[in-house]
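Give me the fold.
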Amino acid sequence: MSFASHPARGVDRHAPDRGDLLVTLADRAFALLVLTVVALHYFLSEMMLTNLGVNYAEGGGNPLEKIHPGTWLAFLLLIFMGARRGNPLRVLDVIAGYRGLAIFTISWIILFGWVTLVTKVPFSPLIDTFLAAIVVFLLVLELDAVWLRRLALMIHGIMTLNALIGIVEYVSGWRLTPYAIGSLVVDTDWRSTAILGHPLGNAAMTGAYAIAMALGGAREIPRPLRPAALGLQLVAMIAFGGRSSLLNAIIMITCIGLWRFAKILRGEGFDRLYIAVAFLLAPLLVAAVAAAAAGGFFDQFMARLQDDAGSGKTRLIMLEFFNIIPLRDIIIGPDQTYVSSLQALEGIELGIESFWVGFILAHGAIMATLFFFGLGAFCWQVVRQTRRETWLVLLFYFLVASTSVSLSVKTCTFAMFVAMALSLMRPPERRVARR
């Protein structure tokens, strides 16, 4: 780009063009703001926003507060992304270039219309929970290899800091952010909140991160430190108290390890450094676990395994709703006042502990099935843009979602997960799969 057809006399013909310089600066600013979007989603949890005085989770107040600050910034960047192509509406062309994303976007629009025109339930959960993930997907794919690596490094740093804070909270009883449900502070729960907020959300994201590392998503971490980094995340999962997350993570990481060991037995090469580190750390690990157990580190988590505070009963109760609510209402969407009264009557007013069940009871079986199909297409697209092993990370994420409210309520964790998958699980030589 040039603002003049001929350089002025006396001007160095080899000097960089001012227009090119502005484009370069704009590209860098855009990439930096994409990283800022992801950082805001990670650092400003629902509990942190509540602690800062933002009316994000409760009813009433300023409507602008109901959408996450990171999501607002993501929308602005999406407009800028389209403007760089000559017209903000060009974003639609980009969406159409990814079939799975296009299907998910269409299903989201249909559900959004259903919610706003028919069921009249709050629509902000659909924006932060799913639309933010769509926008983050588009923004992250605008990054080149250098900035993708920087995004991965940032996520490694955040997750390491989150794990360390979670362990400190678990041991000391101190909280970076008070554990709150809406505006109600809960003082009796020992589970850590750290940076990511809700303990179960913490456990799900930490488990997904650990599995991604086990699948090769820790390329930015020096090789000798990778086992310790993975171990730190597993210890932190005890502090977050996510039983389902920890069990599924251990099973999947064990299966990954056994599969790799079987490949070595079949003659595939292996990194001798890992073997040496494993032999050196194994005795230390056994000693550390024994010392931690003797010091009572696992006591609260083990007590949680023995007494789940009614969590298992809650999952049985929610299934009974399908017998109580008329079939017609299940198909097209039950009245939410009636569902809320049933939850209060059964003592599960804090939420339906299954994303799938909660979504059906919120929007009806027809709309839920349509949306689940779109969600599956989007997950397929995420795998297409990354390494094929990403499907294991997705499998873990949705297994955990099956046992918690997770994506059936307002949360930014899915957008955070998408950013994590696209950066940590990027192929060695980045490719863009559009078909």
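The beta strands are 180-181, 184-185.
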